[in-house]
# Entry
Amino acid sequence: MTNRGVCRNATLSSSCSIIPARVEEALAQGETPHFEAAIPTWYDAFFSLCERLGSWPDRSAARSALAAVCVAAALDRAHHVPLSPLPPKLPPGGGGVVQAAGVAAASRGARWFASTATTARGTQAVRRGVLLRSVPSAGEEALHDLLVHTIQTLRQENPQWFRRAGS
Amino acid sequence: MVPAGWFLMDSNHFRLKGSRKEYKWCALMLWTPRGLFPVAIEFSPVPGDGETTIGQRLVARALATYGPGFLKVLIMDAGYLDGPWLRE
# Structure
């Protein structure tokens, strides 16, 4: 899909509601669809992790999933956009891991994470509070591992972003 | 021209809902045409280490992980400035 329908400041969930209408409009005007590989984002990393892990409530894996949420939270703060790393509908298999992450977090004191994350009914403020409450328990090393994996992927797929212009 | 090898370092404070305890995140981020991607992040309590200390840790971590020359251009505010460190 082209980037035409993507708003830079939109969250994932809002983009999902914006993009189809833009695409339909472009198709109606006779534009030819152009598909390109998506650049991995933290949302992709998080939900890919959820999909890969399925519903296996592995505690160590849950820590990584939780770390990804924290990255998303930090990224949203960095971009000054509303925090919404969890779309209304989780991908197949994702709920279990998010719930497992919540259980892991709950054992460390973040008690509302599971119910809020899996139902996604909380307000933005509640979600922000829940996610940031989970930050101290996420584990620095799990977070670092996730960052390294994602940056290495970015580096392989987009080497031009890491080169000095003209070199 | 799209910047390549450009990084940005910044931090912000946050407080948990219903709590007076304050934390800070500091992030070293890669500047790309698709937005900023975090390369290294550190969460820390407030009061705690200052930006100069945390910033140096993040840069050291990035260089240790990705090698010398990874950071071509680093944009940061005056809170991270430390003369001797910049000359290293």
Remarks:
- Chain A touches chain B through 35 residues (CB under 8 Å).
- Residues 1-16, 53-64, 73-138 of chain A have pLDDT under 50 and may be disordered.
- DSSP finds seven helices and no strands in chain A.
- The helical segments of chain A are 12-28, 42-53, 59-79, 94-106, 113-119, 124-138, 140-157.
